[in-house]
Amino acid sequence: MDFSQWEPVYEDILSDLGFDRTEDENSVRILKAVTLNSDLRMGDDAAEHMQRIVTVVGNAPCLEKDVSDRGLEGTVICSGSAVGRLMALGRNPDMVFTDLDGDIDSQLEASSKGAFTFIHAHGDNAGLITMYAGLFKGPVILTTQSVPEYTVFNYGGFTDGDRAVCFAEHFGAERIRLVGFDYENPMLKEGSDPEMKKRKLGWAKRIILMFDNVC
Fold first, then answer.
1. How far apart are alpha carbons 99 and 15 in whole angstroms?
2. Residue 87 and residue 109: Cα distance in Å, rounded?
3. CA 167 and chain centroid, separation
4. For residue range 96-125, what is the model confidence (pLDDT) as tens digits?
5. 182: CB partners within 8 A, 6+ apart
6. pTM to 2 decimals?
7. Mean pLDDT of the chain
8. pLDDT band at 28 (very low <50, low <70, confident <90, very high)
């Protein structure tokens, strides 16, 4: 998804959820500053390793059952919060999309084993960026939900899972399989607002349903 396609959706999300675009862009500046010594890459570098079939792994309670029932095919792209659960099943992700919440140690471990980590900046995670973004040892790609620039990319999407879908679609995946996705019954993190989580997942669902190669 190009930014010209994404920006109207982004503006609708900001309006609906009451978020501030300026705060998103302030977090981008922090992300750039703390990753100056990271192994920074472009999305094209990760896409070179992407197969025609992609499995995107979400963090819903059904994750383990979905993997057991449907398996993992092609390139495995994991939302940050689900990395530890996926690795407990014996599979290291090929790529991770994260805004640095959830089990950060598992995400760092996946990075050290070679996973491409897409680190996302938004208005609510400046503190997490400061603490963790510079610790990843593997290849890192910086992302924003606002205007992309030379070293910070935007392929569309709002939550980790739908941003992974947007990336795969942008780079031509023929089929994008979803496991561990449940828009109605999310895996809640400690201290999170259940209603806001459901509203965010509502947007994730709307974004994913824009593509006809998702199953």
1. 21
2. 10
3. 9
4. 999 998 899 999 999 999 999 999 999 999
5. 58, 60, 61, 62
6. 0.96
7. 95
8. very high
Q: Domain map of the chain by residue range?
A: 3-208
Long-range own/partner contacts, residues 63-67 (CB < 8 A, 24 or more apart): 63/179, 63/180, 64/89, 66/179, 66/180, 66/181, 67/91, 67/179, 67/180
DSSP string, the chain: --HHHHHHHHHHHHHHHT--HHHHHHHHHHHHHHTTTSEE--HHHHHTT--SEEEEE--STTHHHHHHHH---SEEEEEGGGHHHHHHTT---SEEEE-S-S-HHHHHHHHHTT-EEEEEE-TT-HHHHHHHGGG--SEEEEEESS---SSEE--S-SSHHHHHHHHHHHTT-SEEEEES--SSS--PPTT--HHHHHHHHHHHHHHHTT-TTB-
Residue 103 structure tokens: 């089990």
Tokens at 122, concatenated: 């938004």
Confidence of residue 47 (pLDDT cuts 50, 70, 90): very high
CA–CA distance, 170 with 138 (Å, rounded to integer): 23
The residue behind tokens 């290291």 is 92
Q: Is 90 exposed, middle or buried (0-12, 13-18, 19+ CB in 10 A)?
A: exposed
What average pLDDT does range 162-170 have in this prediction? 98
**Which residue shows structure tokens 């978020």?**
19
